[in-house]
Design brief:
mainly alpha, 2 domains, 2 strands
Length: 275
């Protein structure tokens, strides 16, 4: 049987102290959750859940890196499309000049003016090609190479096909002779027709490839949002619940402190027996 009235051993104080320590530990845990917003902030909170969460965070970082690569590829593709579109817009003017040059009834002076306009249009087409560069990559210049980029964490790739034939055909048309009506008619049937075909092919190919990049980017955004939500379900704290728990523990702490104070005063009351 335990001795209740002892000045050496205060079992009531021990009980009150253990209760206070438990409340303080719970209060520390709740305060950490409120301050960090996480119910699992480290391995000490929940080792298995924390390990799973770390793996998910790595996956999210991978998705972000893939998305960045896709966005870079989209920039390259969009700039290339802008360059080819600019050339496509010039084709009607080029065709108009070639048609005028095919007219045998124009004077030499008029032919010289038309040739000058024709050369200026092709010079502008060359500028479009030279300026269609993004981050040092140009898909429509001479010698351009195709671009491949990761599309997912499984190693899949999406590509942008080089369209250097556009530059080749612009150069071919620029070097064509249009000194006579016959020459101009031949250029329309050959060099111009080839350039028109190459430009249309480039627009179709680049448009489809950039569209695929856009769709994959949107898909990865949805995947990332869903993964982020799943991570939150594992480690995020319910702050409304934690706030209520914090208030409760603070009240318990005050009561436990008062109880410990009362228990500590118990041996003092024994002195009254010796008066």
């Amino acid at each position: 049987m335990a001795v209740q009235n002892s000045i050496l051993t205060n079992s009531s104080a021990f009980t009150a102290l253990r209760t206070l320590n438990t409340i303080n530990r719970n209060l520390d845990t709740t305060q950490n959750r409120v301050s960090t917003g996480l119910k699992v902030a480290g391995a000490l909170d929940n080792a298995s859940t924390f390990a799973i969460a770390q793996g998910i965070r790595s996956e999210l970082s991978g998705i972000d890196a893939v998305t960045q690569g896709l966005n870079s590829a989209k920039g390259i593709g969009n700039v290339a499309i802008a360059g080819v579109t600019g050339i496509s817009n010039l084709l009607s003017d080029i065709r108009g000049k070639l048609t005028e040059l095919s007219n045998e009834g124009i004077t030499t002076a008029q032919r010289n003016i038309l040739q000058s306009d024709f050369n200026e249009l092709l010079s502008q087409a060359g500028n479009f090609i030279a300026n269609a560069s993004f981050n040092g990559t140009n898909l429509i210049e001479s010698g351009a190479g195709s671009i491949n980029t990761l599309s997912n964490l499984a190693g899949g790739v999406l590509g942008l096909t080089a369209q250097s034939a556009v530059n080749t055909q612009v150069g071919s048309l620029a070097g064509a002779t249009v000194a006579t009506a016959t020459n101009a008619q031949s250029v329309i049937a050959n060099q111009y027709s080839n350039l028109e075909s190459v430009v249309n092919t480039a627009l179709g190919s680049l448009g489809a490839e950039v569209r695929a990049l856009n769709l994959q980017t949107q898909f990865l955004e949805e995947i990332r949002d869903a993964t982020d939500e799943g991570l939150g379900n594992l480690v995020d704290a319910d702050l409304a619940r934690e706030s209520a728990r914090l208030t409760s523990l603070q009240v318990q702490q005050q009561l436990s402190t008062q109880t410990l104070g009362i228990a500590n005063q118990r041996p003092q009351s024994l002195l009254g027996l010796f008066r």
